[in-house]
Amino acid sequence: EPEEYKEKLKLYLKTGLSFPQARTNALTSFLKNDVDSLEEIISCPNNILGIEYIKALIRRNSAIKPISLYRKNSGHNESSVDDGDACSSLSIRNAIKNNNEISPLMTKMQQNSLIALFEAVSKNNILYADNISNELLYKLLISNEEGYDKYLDVSQDLSCKISKELENFVSFSQFCDILKSKDLTYTRISRSLMHILLNITKEKAEYYKENDYIRFARVLGFKKEASPLLSAIERDSSIPLITKLSDARSELDDTAYSMFSDDIFANRIYNATMSLKNKKSPDNEFRTPLVIVD
């Protein structure tokens, strides 16, 4: 990012604009572009994500060639199921959350996905952000004395605001609403709180970045007919391929194992929350077999 652009971004943020709007203004000013066309491009969440993918490919000198696909019908932030041929993931979640009903989705989703969703709904195996409210509150309480600014995406100002508002905590989503502001979006707050809950510190994130992030690959499942491909990947990959969790300690170096442990910790929180919701013993990652699809 050119210094001129970064300076413009700082100036717009200081005026109290949200980050997306400050970024739009800074880019428009820097590129001397028409604001309408530029805003149309970078206000779309999928475009923003695509641009970040392309930036990452450029930084890595990757041989991957990006291909864009036109998104029809429902937009990324569309909150309700419409009359088109498809709908957003947000509208799908809202349909289930609001009335636990998937019938409006019958013509909107692929059959296999619809069946899997129906099974999850019928077994009450769906979690929402507010389901981890108790876990988050506990972590915020025990970390309050030392503050929260050591965690990724948490500034000193946000840390102070969390401490100040902690006595008003009711739920995850409600606390995000309390903390959000013009310059801190709901999404940013939500991500910051998750970093606190999952012990993702700035120091740890920087260390992982310095070590190129990807230190291993973990297989969750595969088609039986793809077994030869899996063997080829395991043989030729430049990073360890983990198919059995108990082998991770012996196959991974310290950096990779630290990343692996973070993954397992996040899964344990998820499994424990699900078990409390359904009043059953939590699943154990180390005893869960690979999914093999015939």
Give the biggest beta sheet: 2 strands, parallel
| Beta-strand percent range | under 5%
Query: Structural class, from helix and strand content?
Result: mainly alpha
Helices, by number, come to 14
Instruction: Report the radius of gyration as a whole number of Å.
Output: 22 Å
Overall 3D geometry? globular
Helix share bin? 40-55%
**pLDDT below 50 for ≥5 consecutive residues: which ranges?**
none
Can you count the beta strands? 4
Give the strand line-up of the largest sheet. Answer: 1-3
The helix/strand order is HHHHHHHHHHHEEHEHHE
What is the residue-averaged pLDDT? 88
Report the end-to-end length measured between terminal Cα atoms.
48 Å
Task: Explain the layout of strands and helices.
Layout: H1 3-14, H2 19-31, H3 35-42, H4 45-59, H5 89-99, H6 111-122, H7 133-143, H8 156-165, H9 172-179, H10 186-197, H11 202-210, E1 217-218, E2 221-223, H12 227-236, E3 241-242, H13 248-251, H14 254-278, E4 291-293
Parallel strand pairs: 1-3, 2-4
Helix pairs in contact: 1-2, 2-3, 7-10, 9-10
